């Protein structure tokens, strides 16, 4: 058994104090490193400029708003405005990477940093406001229901005990789920799947944004939009990741500038007027 002498006790105390000092010093160093790291955090706009490209989420199958043409190029109303945003942000409209998205994953793409901005015909709702930050709206929209001319649906009551086709994560999905549980919904991820299902007779009708179904019916004369305005009128706006105030503020200022310059109206004339003709007054559609 070892006997502790006064000298041994002094050595033990000295070693303990030295150890404590080293730990404290190490913690202080780590704290300083963390502080240094936090001060070096790059803002979203700085990161976009550093990357030399802005990633914008758009639809690939929702003409005339966002779609791929025969050459595989992105076209549509949303795309036209997104190009101007890229030009104002990076000085070149070609410095944009269009990321193809679907209605159900628009929020997740922002959360996961797969995109910087969503320009995918995104309707503003209270639920979505909780998870993303919407910028200034640029379109007005409501719901519409398209059906075969041979069996037109002109009233929601006609859909009882019938199958209604919708896209997952859309305003139509939410509206009918909440307010009309008596209607059976059949849901699809992509617009092309949903409209193909209507053509195949897998549903009595299809509900989506009225602007979309009106455009689709013009291209498919055997179908009619029997319900042209359903629910409350909503707004469509681009969105950024929740809490990204810097990018949101910049985007709002840019959208105001584009509206004043007539860019949004020009985008309408180029992409939407050829589809709607004189059936829609642009003042009833655009938010400028």
Shape: globular
Characterize the main sheet: 5 strands, mixed
Uncertain stretches: 1-40
Helix content estimate: 40-55%
Strand order of the largest sheet: 10-9-11-8-12
User: Given the structure, what is the number of helices?
Assistant: 12
Total number of strands:
13
Q: Write down the oligomeric state.
A: single chain
Give the SSE string. Answer: HHEEEEHEHEHEEEHEHEHEEHHHH
What's the rounded overall pLDDT mean? 88
> CA-to-CA gap between the ends?
90 Å
Secondary-structure content class: alpha/beta
Keywords summarizing the entry:
alpha/beta, 12 helices, single chain, 288 residues, 3-stranded parallel β-sheet
Structure, explained:
The strands form 4 sheets. A 5-stranded mixed beta sheet has the order 10-9-11-8-12, sandwiched between helices. Helix content is about 45%, strand content about 25%. The chain is globular and about 55 Å long. With about 290 residues, it is of the alpha/beta class. Helix 3 packs across helix 9 (about 245-260).
Question: In brief, what are we looking at here?
Answer:
The chain contains twelve helices and 13 strands. With 288 residues, the protein is α/β, with parallel strands linked by helices. Helix 6 (171-179) links the parallel strand 9 and strand 10 (184-188).
